[in-house]
Here is the input.
Amino acid sequence: MNPSQHFLTQPSPCEELKSPPLCCPDCGETRIFTDIHSGEEVCTNCGLVINDPPVNYGKNGYSSNYENHEEQSRHGYFLTHSAYDRGFNTVIQGVKDVYGTKMGDREAIDMRRLQRRDNRSKVDDTVTRNLNVAMTELDRMTTTLHLPSTAKEYAAYVYRKALTADLVRGRSIDAFVAASVYMACRVMRIPRSLSTVANTSKREYLEVSTTYRLLLKELKIKPPIDDPQKYLSKLATMLGVPRQTECLAADILKAAKGSSAIMGKDPRGVAGAALYYAMEVRGEHLNQRIIAEASDTTAVTLRNRYRGLKKVLAKKSDWVY
Here is the structure.
């Protein structure tokens, strides 16, 4: 046999790479239907989804037209901690078969039965039921408190860690959700006090604060120390204070930073005292009780923080107002 004849007897690269015809691994059917919208390959005999392509969670492109947004958006939902199933949800719906023909009465009844069984299977175990209740309460609280989606995601992450550490067993789910929300506000420096979060929750303040301390201890999370500057802008907006007075109060807090008037004190009370001090310097007058209520503190605490700021700034030779 010459070399040319030997070469012709060898299989060509195309023959080696040629794949066998696609068939259903369950029933062996070779008639496979391809859905052009989802990219799924479905057996026409038993309905088995043979090939489920990976989902691209991005967009096809930018569109300023709202009507074209749905056409350009891809299939699938982004993964999130704030959903009880992290977004890996299954939806059984539709009234048409694989050929696009409307189902008969018998097929529609079978489809509704499958929907009921699928919905029941999603909340069959204890952890899933717990997360279902907790994420519903989390969504309600974050909406009421007007928190961004990043804070909601972090609060869900903290709650899942507490659930994995078996801290929620025998305790209130609502209290842990509220404590997780406050933890997210502390970590992301969002101006929401513990009393504000507790008032939004279904549990009492004492229970929420105790649960928050339990999260700090067991999960070993170290949120940053609250800065009075964080509450100053919100407080000035609530009281209708002019911008110049707010800037002067910010300068007062900056000058007293690191002193005994601020360290270890409630940041909301210190912010209210700085604002009251700035209003006094500028000749503006507002009742101490009104400022204390807006600062979520008492008038006695406000006066004590005010005296402390005034004493510290009197010792600073570079402080000029």
Summary: The longest strand covers residues 32-34. The radius of gyration is 31 Å.
